[in-house]
Amino acid sequence: MASGKAVIRARPWVVACFLGPALLLLGALVVYPIGYTVWRSLFDTSGDKFVGLDNFGEIFTDDALQTALRNNVIWIVVAPTVCTALGLIFAVLTEKIRWATAFKLIIFMPMAISMLASGIIFRLVYEQDPDRGLANAVMTTVHDTFSPGSSWPDAEPRPDGPLTSQDDGSYLLDEPVAAGTPVLLPLVAVPPPELADAEPARSAASDPGQVTGTVWMDFTPGGEGAENVVDSGEQALAGITVEAVRDGEVVASAETGSDGTFTLPQEADGAQLRLAADSFTAPYNGAEWMGSTLVTPAIIGSYVWMWAGFAMVLIAAGLASVPRETLEAARVDGANEWQVFRRVTVPLLAPLLAVVMVTLMINVMKVFDLVYVIPPPSSQSDATVLALELYTESFTPGGNPGLGSAIAVFLLLLVLPVMFFNIRRLRRENQR
């Protein structure tokens, strides 16, 4: 049988017929766009003036591009590392648990979702309002389980009323109180939905040996009530902590009942009353996921949700080829499961883990969809990456196509070494 080289020398036209269309498509779809992009990166916005390497210099001087560079470094370091680590953990777990196939399916399922759809999903997950955003709904539920929120976060003293606001968020009655004289502590500004379950307010009874009073919503629908008077139809503010303060120290305290009344012992006579600040603190609404501080980690979290399954499948395939005799020998020698994992499994999988991590590094250098879809316009500049800046400069009004082309070339130069490293490692694996 003739060798392949002999066939090529004898029938070059056959080789040309087979390779010609492929080379033509490769040149039209890959070589020409790369060459034109490199050429375009050397010109200004209009494409008429040659500027040399000025566009490349702007990548390292423009503020938005410096932010994009910094975010790209964070992506390259964090996202592949977390995906690979989780993929390794999941792959090992699939060998230890029942229903491993179902587990793999659940973890790998996000890979079937497009980046655009995933971005829309996590845009909703990261909504600030806990009633809409899943992340903050979970956080507020856990927080309120261990630290319940305040009773009336929106309540405020009536303007020109007897209470004044303090710097710590409490409300202070300026005049000292006397036992036997009921005290009226009116508040306003409580939204009607918060008063849905409130009971009618009642004026406190007089008691010569105690300080009594009422805390209530001093507002009658229709505006027919009198100020600083408990009118019919006005509602009580229950659960507010009332403190008697003398010389800066709390001498007695009580909580308002369901009818808004409270009772303090004789020690409160002559003291000032203060409504404690913790009765009016704003409710905990979770983290500001789309703020400038957390927006990049939040987007990376959505990427990990998608790509951890990819890493798990590749690592699980490599784990299946690990000799079981080696693992059993380690256990026979007295190694526990953690030692077997750390000293045997991970070293044997190290080449595969490197391939997975490098593949993900190439992928995150080009991340665009998630960064474009998830952040709101107010924080997109804080989450920007090079691929998004490439799109903005190249395809939006007011952009600079020359700078966009320079960013594309810069990304290509970043990807090439990593890609060559991955190809060399794969070839070495195939030769073994």
Characterization of this structure:
By secondary structure, this protein is α+β, with helices and mostly antiparallel strands. It folds into two domains: 33-131 and 289-431, MetI-like (MetI-like fold); 156-279, no CATH class. The protein has helices spanning 4-10, 12-40, 54-59, 63-93, 100-108, 115-125, 134-146, 295-320, 324-332, 337-365, 369-373, 380-383, 386-395, 401-431; strands spanning 156-157, 163-165, 171-173, 183-188, 211-217, 241-246, 249-255, 261-264, 272-275. The strands form two sheets. A five-stranded antiparallel beta sheet has the order 2-3-9-6-7, with no helix packed on it. Strands 1-4-5-8 form a four-stranded mixed beta sheet, with no helix packed on it. The mean pLDDT is 88.
Offer a quick outline of the entry.
By secondary structure, the protein is α+β, with helices and mostly antiparallel strands. It has two domains: 33-131 and 289-431, MetI-like (MetI-like fold); 156-279, no CATH class.
Write the layout of secondary structure elements.
Layout: H1 4-10, H2 12-40, H3 54-59, H4 63-93, H5 100-108, H6 115-125, H7 134-146, E1 156-157, E2 163-165, E3 171-173, E4 183-188, E5 211-217, E6 241-246, E7 249-255, E8 261-264, E9 272-275, H8 295-320, H9 324-332, H10 337-365, H11 369-373, H12 380-383, H13 386-395, H14 401-431
Parallel strand pairs: 4-5
Antiparallel strand pairs: 1-4, 2-3, 3-9, 5-8, 6-7, 6-9
Helix pairs in contact: 2-14, 4-8, 4-10, 8-10, 9-10, 10-14, 13-14
